[in-house]
Amino acid sequence: MSTLIKRMAHVGLQVPDLEASVAWATTVMGMREVERVDGVAYLTHAGCHHSLQLIEGEASALDHIAMEAHDEAALAALVTRLREENATILSEEPQERGLGAAVRFRGPAGHVFEVFAGMEDAGPVHTGAGVQPRKFGHPTLTAPDILPTQEFFARVLEFRLSDEIGPGLLAFMRCNPDHHGLGLQKGEPGLNHYAWEVENVAVLTQLGETLARNGSRFIWGPGRHGAGRNLFTYHYDPAGCIVEYYADLYQVWDERTYVPGRWSADDPDAQNLWGPGAPLEMLTAATPLADALQVA
Asked: Greater confidence, 245 or 281?
């Protein structure tokens, strides 16, 4: 387990219709809007200040991925490592509401990462609407070559490889007992999907009913991944980003004996032990990096 990173914390997304995205998050995904400042909505699934940040923009884009450090000492140690790595540090001050100390930096493929220590409490947990997640699970990031990001996370942030599908195609990395807190997938630079954990398969069926009542449906699942062993479903949010809800993720409790799974890209069980593999729209999806849109 990482001595620096405690957990995956949230995703920051730029969305073209902030009202529609907030309405979906609070009606379907069971989130609660904590506050909105200067076109930025902070939403939470629990008592933390936010686990989803929606930023008003001209088009859908990945703004950043956030992780929580164990404490301020761990955060300081990470900053030292980033400097030794000659990583591009964008800020050493919090760039959003609700955080204590924080650092933002750019990864090898251009993704922006934020690591913080300390977050404000948001008070009451649930509104009673939608299907409330138990926690923010992971992002799956895309890059033309995933190996530099994989090596960076292993070397600098102490993530470990849990499974890989077809060397260079998909890698799953962990910072705590969860089988993966980070997925890496070959593709255009950006975000393939972001994921939320729920208690069990019954909650996934509730999500299916909720999606149907709101004019949507699953694009893949329910099923069970071979890599990670988790139950899964995927759907689109209003900004066109793919959202995974999952349950029953494999837990790595013994680091001494765990051996990463090595799956062939041709093995159908790697993707789904119950049914068909991922549709083409899942395999090629990549919400672009916000910086790429600005350059364009």
From this structure: 245
pTM score over 0.85 = yes
Domain layout of the chain by residue ranges: 5-119, 135-293
Selected from 3.40.50.1220, 3.40.50.740, 3.10.180.10, 3.30.30.10, the CATH number assigned to the domain covering 5-119 reads 3.10.180.10
Maximum Cα–Cα distance for the chain, whole Å?
Answer: 52
Q: How high is the pLDDT of residue 4?
A: 98
Nearest to 78, CA basis, from 195, 172, 159: 159
Per-residue pLDDT tens over the stretch 157-171: 999 999 999 989 999
Q: For position 216, what pLDDT does the model report?
A: 96
Share of the chain above pLDDT 70, in %: 97
Confidence band of 279 (pLDDT split at 50, 70, 90): very high
Give the three-class secondary structure for 171.
strand
Positions of E strands within 16-165: 32-37, 40-44, 52-56, 61-69, 88-91, 99-106, 112-119, 135-143, 160-165
Determine the pLDDT at residue 167.
87
DSSP 67-91: EEESSHHHHHHHHHHHHHTT-EEEE
Half-sphere exposure of 34 (CA within 13 A, CB side): 22
Mean pLDDT, residues 126-134: 85
To the nearest 10 degrees (0 to 180), the angle between helices 72-84 and 147-156 is 130
Please tell me the distance from the alpha carbon of residue 125 to that of residue 196, in angstroms, as a whole number.
16
For 275, list phi and psi in degrees, rounded to 5: -165, -150
Does this chain's domain 5-119 share its CATH topology with 135-293?
A: yes
The CATH class for the domain spanning 135-293 reads alpha beta
Whether the CA torsion 18, 195, 64, 183 is positive or negative: it is negative
SS3 34: strand
